[in-house]
Amino acid sequence: MENNNNNTINKNRLNKVVLALCKPESYSSVYHQGKHDTSMPSVEELSEIIERLRAIIFPGYFGHSEVRPETMSYYIGSNIDKVITSLTEQLKRGNCFTCKKYGIEECTECEKKAKYITQKFIDRLPDIRHLLSTDVQAAYEGDPAASQAGEAIFCYPSIRSLTSHRIAHELLILGAELIPRIISELAHSETGIDIHPGATIGERFFIDHGTGVVIGETSIIGKNVRLYQGVTLGAKSFPLDEDGNPIKGIDRHPKVEDNVIIYSGATILGNVIIGKDAEIGGNVWITYNVQPGAKILQSKVREVLFDDGGGI
Q: Are strands 294-296 and 303-305 parallel, antiparallel or unpaired?
């Protein structure tokens, strides 16, 4: 008898909770009703797509380890075929999520856009691989603990994160909606490295250790740049519109020129320029331009030049 009463109480409580959660005032700000009768993108499917692309870019390291030069075309072709089908569907879902049109009959535009982006992206795979190959070389040359370049490919969070970033960045440039951000956040969760897909990064880029690195949306990083753990390339402030909301899409993050090294814990904020060949010491806070060749040191934030030790 007591158990029956408890079951009744539990059911009553459950019904009360369900009714509360189903009130419009409760769910209206967090509910999504799919447009065009289309589901949200699948995080699981996107994870699989990234792994297939990783296997395409680095054959033998990921996916089927027994791939040989004589079977390369079959292996690569098979994976690309699967990526095309899956990526097109996920891009379509991402497009529908942000689409301003309603109605199932209007969904052809989102699908056409997805097919176009997928084909253009596939065309870019050789260039993406080239960029990543330079990142691998920079990791190997920049870390005395690396015994060979393959160790960086297989083990380093920097290369894993950059693979996802270079994929996401290319998709964003091509006009993909939502999907690039999901890809970047998957890499962030996995590696602790947070790179917005909008950030532009040149070749031979290396993040040593990696944990806690943040690179904002409008950051531009030149060639042969190295960061250490805990570095932030962020925004100094967020200009507001007349309604008090942050203005979107403005240039608000650092521009890092070629051959710069930024050591652990450094924070660089705002639309500032870190000049070519500069070195930024650990734990410094920078909100101003740094001249080419300068060294910014942690102790009293001393600024010296490589050539004569004078101030900037």
A: antiparallel
- How many domains does the structure of the chain reveal? 2
Give me the domain span that covers residue 238: 212-312
Inter-residue contact 49 to 87 (CB < 8 Å): yes
Mean pLDDT in runs of 10 for the chain (312 residues)?
A: 62 92 93 81 97 96 89 94 98 89 67 96 98 98 94 97 98 96 98 98 97 97 98 89 83 97 97 98 96 86 50 44
Q: 11 to each of 5, 7, 22, 23, 140, how far by Cα in Å?
A: 10, 6, 16, 19, 61
CA distance 249 to 271: 13
Q: What are phi and psi of 234, to 5 degrees?
A: -125, -175
Measured distance CA(180)–CA(38) in Å, rounded: 18
CATH code for the domain in which residue 227 is found: 2.160.10.10
CA distances from 171 to 79, 117, 121, 122, 195 (A): 18, 7, 7, 10, 14
The DSSP code for 240 is B
CATH number of the domain bearing residue 123: 1.10.3130.10
**Is 221 within the bounds of a domain?**
yes
One domain for residues 144 and 260: no
Sheet of 206-208: strand order equals 206-208, 226-228, 261-262, 279-280, 294-296, 303-305
* Cβ-Cβ contacts under 8 Å for 207 (sequence gap 6 or more): 157, 158, 161, 162, 193, 213, 226, 227, 228, 229, 231
Residues near 271 by Cβ (< 8 Å), separated by ≥ 6? 218, 236, 251, 252, 253, 254, 255
Single pTM value for the model: 0.89
